[in-house]
Amino acid sequence: MSENTRTPWYRKKNVLILLVLLFAIIVFGSTTQTWLQVQADQGVVKAADMAVQGSKAATAVTAFSVVAIAGALAASISGRVIRIAAGCVLLLASIGIAVAVLTVLANPQAAASGPVGAQIGVTGIPLQVTLSPIIWLSLGADVLLFLGAVAVLLFGRAWTGTKKYENSTAGGAKVSDEPVDDIDSWDRLSRGDDPTSGTIEDDSASHSNQENP
């Protein structure tokens, strides 16, 4: 049985990254939908029902969800150090989303007053606000996003990153013929390899060939 088969699904890189990305997209998508149904009482004239989108009721949710999407993509392609940093970004973004959503739930009238005032041109009037189920969907997806971020931090250290240098044999360590740049050198150094070893060996061989034609 292979090692990948023995690994629980919640520890696997592909599964976790896909789930985290999915939850972040759900939160982002929910901000384009109606969070609040509002009816403004202007005295004799009662305004028609107005819908307030999540992006208007809690603008921070949109921003934090974009950050979470970027963090998930970064965690999927980066090395160990950057992956941990991306996990921290995911964790902070999920906390920011939760704070913004809970603020709307705690005082929906205050969240709706700004968008409604901009729409009808009148502020300070009584508002009757009804919460849409979408806001609860956003909160639920964010809870799962938070758990996914914690899992990335806990299990992401054991994931293998994208390797540009592959061993040609089981016991040998042949370096790729591709030129080494600063990012490649840093990746090799983080894995405990000497980024200059291949260059030194090549230079020594070249010098030896020149002395012994």
Automatic annotation (TrEMBL):
<keyword id="KW-0472">Membrane</keyword>
<feature type="region of interest" description="Disordered">
    <location>
        <begin position="167"/>
        <end position="213"/>
    </location>
</feature>
<dbReference type="InterPro" id="IPR019051">
    <property type="entry name" value="Trp_biosyn_TM_oprn/chp"/>
</dbReference>
<feature type="compositionally biased region" description="Basic and acidic residues">
    <location>
        <begin position="185"/>
        <end position="194"/>
    </location>
</feature>
<feature type="transmembrane region" description="Helical">
    <location>
        <begin position="134"/>
        <end position="155"/>
    </location>
</feature>
<dbReference type="Pfam" id="PF09534">
    <property type="entry name" value="Trp_oprn_chp"/>
</dbReference>
<protein>
    <submittedName>
        <fullName>Putative membrane protein (TIGR02234 family)</fullName>
    </submittedName>
</protein>
<keyword id="KW-0812">Transmembrane</keyword>
<feature type="transmembrane region" description="Helical">
    <location>
        <begin position="84"/>
        <end position="106"/>
    </location>
</feature>
<keyword id="KW-1133">Transmembrane helix</keyword>
<feature type="transmembrane region" description="Helical">
    <location>
        <begin position="56"/>
        <end position="77"/>
    </location>
</feature>
